[in-house]
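Hi R.,

Here's the chain you asked about this morning:
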Amino acid sequence: MTIEPGDTATGHRGPDTVRARLLGPVELHAGGVDRAPTTPKLLQLLAMLLIRPGKTVRVDSLVHELWNDAPPRSVRRTLHTYVHHLRRHLDPDGDRGEGLLVTSAPGYRLEIDPAVVDVSEFARLHRLGRDLLTGGDHAAAAHAFRTALDLWSGPPLANIHCGPTLAAYTVYLLEHRRNARDLWIEAEIRAGQHREMLGVLRSLTTADPLDETLHGHLIRALGLSGRRSDALAAYQRLRTRLDDELGVEPCAELRELHRELLSERHPIR
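And the predicted structure, written out as tokens:
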């Protein structure tokens, strides 16, 4: 199974198409122009609406995000002013009525299709990759995961001063990115690209020396590449570091992989 060009978020769009990015700096493009404001509170307000595209976000949720436990005395009037200014950013000509940002009791809603937000495309490709991996089409799964990861241009909501809701949302996104990365590596190895992945895995384990999943991928790729001594050395380095810094042993999966290497059995793919 392959991914057609039109299946990704980078396909053809007309000049009036709305599209939004959260996987990096927050952007909202309409009419070919990025309409996202630069004022921190307005940008934070926009992000709150973008994480629930097409759905009403309650006023109390917006207040909690923007001011946490210290809202101003005239908080609803202040929020209404922010909404007014954000509408002007999204529709500077004022020719669409409420435009993209509509009042929807008990809050506000961005009138956009969730599919135009890059998070939705990332989730779709993530699901596709998992289905392909489960079905045994490892090369296509690797391509799907790689395409999903390519949607990221940096840390999520990188230009936002996050309050409690958006901070939790960034953690959620980063966990999904980590899962997609790990599944991409697994798919590449199962597709027979273990030698090609060694450089990537060396770099990732150097950057994150306590990540047992990454080390497991590296050890497995080394073993499959006929480099059993290097694989055993990588395991021993991880074991020493885990003991020195955390006082723990490698996880059960890594210990089993180590036993396989010692017994000269072929590592599990």
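The chain has ten helices and six strands.

Let me know if you need anything else.
M.
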